Structure formats: structure tokens, C-alpha cells
Amino acid sequence: MSTFDFDAPADRSGTHSVRWEKYAGRDVIPLWVADTDFHAPPAVVDALKRRLDQGVFGYTLAPPELRRLIVERMARLYHWAIEPDWVVFLPGVVSGLYMAANRLSDPGDHLISPAPVYYHLFRAAQHAPRDWTDVPMVLEGGRWVWDEARLAESARARSRLLMLCNPHNPGGTVFRRHELERIAAFSEKHNLTIVSDEIHCDLLLEEGLVHCPIASLSPAVSRRTVTLMAPSKTFNTAGIGLAFAIVEDPALREAFSFDLKKSVHDASLFAYEAAVAAYRDGDAWLAVQLEYLRGNRGLVEATVARLPGVETVHLEATYLSWIDCSGLGVADPHALFLEHGLGLSPGADFGAPQFVRLNFGTQRKVLAEAMKRFEKAVTSTQKT
Ligand SMILES: Cc1ncc(COP(=O)(O)O)c(C=O)c1O
User: Fold this and answer.
1) CA of 93 to the centre of ligand 1 (A)
2) Domain extents for the chain?
């Protein structure tokens, strides 16, 4: 029997959890922002305790061991040979997205981004500010994929960056090698830098699928790519704060990070400790977590499948179900679920108001109650 118990209740009250504080004092199950209710791997907790006990918390370098572990992980899991000095540490992937939009394009340049997508991919363009084009994601064979005809039409003379989210959030698509090859070919044709947010790369739920970092396709693709990853989704350490960019090309790396110190703070020393422990000792925990999440996915998908007016695809990755509510005939599906005690992410945040995103990274018991509320909300729309 596994020593990791994902059914163990986690009381997050008093921890200022973003997810739980939003509806504090109300009978609302909050299944929105993307962290989970699971205790981090014991190896991570123990490493943090040890570092805490040492008691001196001054400025701290990124441990060389962390670079080594990342190099080793990329080779072992993704057959991707990288060098330690390609890694640039960041406090979060979001910082990396904004840095990329600002540093790797000039005013007047144009960005290309999928839609719907995790909102910071296009907000980074908005904020820079740069003009950008949304390329729609379309359903093909039960998977959300890029509309490649629209992608082909999206390039302009001043296009500089292509924003990719792989696995895709929302929708959970794990892009296949041949799909990535076509995106890479398009980027090559138009001389685009690829900014690839791969934060969900370790959360593949569909057995047999493998994550393919787009930069691993070939040395040429690698030289035009900034890959963003983090241990935070994988090991539920988002509140600790650490991510990294992998950038092979020295000029691109320099452009991406030349005023890093002025833009963002170093990752915290606790973040380094947690990341080393997670990557060195966390994979057995991760395997059990993935199995648990598969069970939760089954519960969500079975509930949605037997209800009228709602639909979802079979999620390949992430713990975020993307549910189409257009069959319910309500203007604001997020508000409907909230009235029934369920706090989901509004699809409008991602550019699709008729959808909601449901985070099933919680204890099965909590999820079962949430799905009862989900069902009540849906059936309430069927009454005349
Ligand atoms: C695709 C994607 N990128 C980035 C993030 C956040 O990254 P970080 O917390 O490292 O800034 C999330 C969190 O939900 C995400 O889904």
C-alpha cells in the first residue's frame, strides 16, 4: 500500500489560500485557481523543515544540484539533452511570460497566441503592449487543437513571438510530435521566437502519452525557443514560488534575462530547497498523485456525460476540466454554479464565456459533494 494518502483531509483555513479565501464564510466549494488540496511530497516538507531549522535566511544562490537535476530530468523524461547553463531561474512562469513579451519583441511587433488559453499568455502581449492575434483552438477527434488554417493566416511582417501552452490550459491537450512539428515549421517560416509554457508537463493523465517539449524537436527549434517550466503544479508548491526558463541560444538567453534582477526577485531559498527535494525524491509521490487524479477525472467526466446541456472532452493532462455549458441556455454558467455552492473558473477569463473550468485537484470526498452540486445546478436549468 502506498504511504501517500491523497484522501487525507487538508484544512487550509488560516493559510490565506487564494482559492479558499475567495469564498471564506460561505458554503461554496472553490474549484477554481490551479493549485490542489494535497499535501506536498513528504520529501519536500522534510527538506523545508531542515532548512528552517538551520535558521539563517540570507541571499542564496541557486544550488548547482538543482541545475543538474533539471538537466537529468529533461533527459530522463523527455529525451531532451540540455546544458546546465541554459537554465534561467525565475520566481514564476507568469514572470517569464511577461519578460518574454517585453524583452523578445519591440514596440510595433506582433504576437500570436492560441485562444482560449491561460490568460497570462495574451495578457503579456496586452501589457507590453503589443498587438496580437488569437488563433482559435478547435475540437478535432475529441481534442482541442490549433486551427492550423487560421494559424497560417495569422502571421504578419512584424510577427515576432508565438505563444504556446503545452499541455494546453484549458482543455488539457498534450500536443503530439507531428502537431508540434507543424507549429515549429510555421515559426521557422516566419522567423518567430517560440515561448512555450510547459508548466503542466508532468501532469499527463492519459496512459501512454508522453510530453514532448517543442524545443526538443531539433537543435534549430531549440535555438528559437524559450521553454518555461516549474515544479509548482506537479508537486503542489505554487505558494513557494520557483520556475525556470530553458533557453539554448546565448543571444536569446541574454535578451530574455539581461535585466532579470531589475524585473523580478530571485527565487526564495525555500523554493530552491523544495525544488531540489521534489525533483530528487518526489517521483514516487507523483505517480500516486497521477493515479488519484485519474480517479477524480473519471468522476467529473462520468457526471458531465450523464447530464444534458454540458459537455467535456476526455482530459489528456492537467487537473482542470474544461466544460462546455452552451447547451444549458444560460447567459452566465459561472454564476449558475456559484448559486449552487460551486466556485469554478469562469470561461470568460480564458476568452470562452459559455465554458467553466473545474479544478478537480482535491480530496475525492470534496469532489463528490462538488459534483452533487454540479448536478443540481444543471438540473435546475431543465425545470420549466
Ligand atoms: C499554463 C500556466 N502557466 C503558468 C501558470 C502559473 O505559473 P506560476 O505560478 O509559476 O507563475 C499557470 C497556473 O495556473 C498555468 O496554468
Assistant:
1) 6
2) 18-42+283-380, 48-281
- The closest-lying atom of ligand 1 relative to the alpha carbon of residue 118 is 1
Tell me the average confidence (pLDDT) per consecutive run of 10 residues in the chain, 384 residues long: 87 95 96 98 98 98 97 98 98 97 97 97 96 98 98 98 98 98 98 98 96 98 98 98 97 93 90 98 98 98 98 98 97 98 97 97 98 98 80
User: Given this model, what pLDDT does residue 70 score?
Assistant: 98
Contact by Cβ (8 Å): 375, 38 = no
CATH class (in words) of the domain with range 48-281:
alpha beta
- Supply the pLDDT for residue 2: 67
* Residue 261 CB partners (closer than 8 Å, separation 6+): none
The residue whose CA has the least distance to atom 14 of ligand 1 is 34
Nearest to 167 by CA among 182, 181, 180: 180
Q: What is the dihedral of CA 94, 97, 100, 103, to 10 degrees?
A: -50
Q: How far is the CA of 244 from the centre of ligand 1 (A)?
A: 12
Nearest-atom index, ligand 1, CA of 33: 14
The CA 9 to ligand 1 mean position distance, Å, reads 25
Per CATH, 18-42+283-380 and 48-281 having the same topology is answered no
Given the candidates 3.90.1150.10, 3.40.50.720, 3.10.450.350, 3.40.50.10680, the CATH classification of the domain at 18-42+283-380 is 3.90.1150.10
Question: Quick one: pLDDT at residue 261?
Answer: 83
Residues with CB under 6 A from ligand 1: 34, 92-94, 118, 165, 169, 197, 199, 230, 232, 238, 243
Which amino acid is located at 103 in the chain? R
* Interval between CA 34 and ligand 1 midpoint (Å): 8
Distance 199 CA to ligand 1 centre (A): 6
Whose CA is closest to 187, among 226, 147, 159, 228?
A: 159
* DSSP strands (E only) in 172-279: 193-197, 225-229, 243-247
Take atom 7 of ligand 1 and give the residue whose Cα is closest: 93
What's the one-letter identity of residue 228?
A: L
Residue 324 has phi, psi (to 5 degrees) of: -85, 120
Q: Give the predicted TM-score (pTM) of the model.
A: 0.98
| Residue 286 φ then ψ, to 5° | -60, -40
How many Å apart are CA 149 and CA 134, to the nearest integer?
Answer: 13
Q: How far apart are CA 334 and CA 330, in angstroms?
A: 10
